[in-house]
Write a structure and sequence with these properties.
Elements: H1 2-15, H2 19-39, H3 46-88, H4 91-113, H5 117-137, E1 140-142, E2 156-162, E3 173-178, E4 181-183, E5 186-189, E6 191-196
Parallel strand pairs: 2-6
Antiparallel strand pairs: 1-4, 3-6, 4-5
Helix pairs in contact: 4-5
């Protein structure tokens, strides 16, 4: 009787080929479920998977918020540094000028009581040289504007035209009324000059 049932099943599978693959798939599914159960790695339920994803999302959101706070702190710190630099950037320059001011004050004080004119002249020359040295140390230089130098509209301003005392001074600097200065390569004050015509 068992032989007949088996034969009938085989005949049905042959007569209905669409049902045969379904039987094969069922067998495969059962085998894979048995393999998973055998290894102890049972399939997670959808609720477990959702909980796991929510935990990952929470961790990433926390990491994002921390990074955002760190960036905001960095931005505020840089803004404060920039503001301090703009507000107090000249502090070092003024601090180095104070000893020269002290020398001027001593010279003015001494000027009221002094009888020796030569000593006064020497004192003022020392202060002047000290001030020039300070400017040179800070890369502030005088723009050349001596008699006979070529006129350059980027560094010189012609305040007047004067008849040239010699033909070679035509179009050139005859006299300098106010010295010009450069800080490094940048002109910070244009020299005011008289140009020969």
């Amino acid at each position: 009787m068992e032989k007949n049932e088996t034969k009938n099943m085989q005949d049905e599978a042959m007569n209905n080929p669409q049902e045969a693959p379904a039987a094969d798939e069922t067998a495969k599914t059962e085998e894979s479920a048995e393999a998973q159960a055998a290894t102890g790695d049972a399939e997670k339920t959808p609720e477990d998977r959702i909980a796991e994803l929510e935990e990952q999302l929470k961790a990433q959101k926390d990491q994002y918020l921390r990074m955002l706070a760190d960036f905001d702190n960095y931005r505020k710190n840089q803004l404060k540094k920039t503001n301090d630099l703009l507000t107090y950037g000249g502090e070092n320059a003024f601090t180095k000028l104070l000893p020269i001011i002290d020398d001027f004050e001593r010279a003015v004080e001494h000027n009221a009581k002094a009888d020796d004119v030569e000593a006064l002249k020497e004192g003022f020359n020392l202060i002047y040289n000290k001030f020039k040295t300070y400017l040179e140390q800070n890369e502030v230089t005088v723009i050349p504007a001596a008699q006979g130098d070529a006129f350059d509209e980027h560094m010189h301003e012609a305040i007047t035209m004067f008849p040239a005392p010699a033909p070679e001074l035509k179009g050139k600097i005859v006299d300098c009324a106010t010295k010009g200065y450069k800080y490094k390569d940048k002109v910070i004050r244009i020299a005011k000059v008289v140009v020969g015509e």
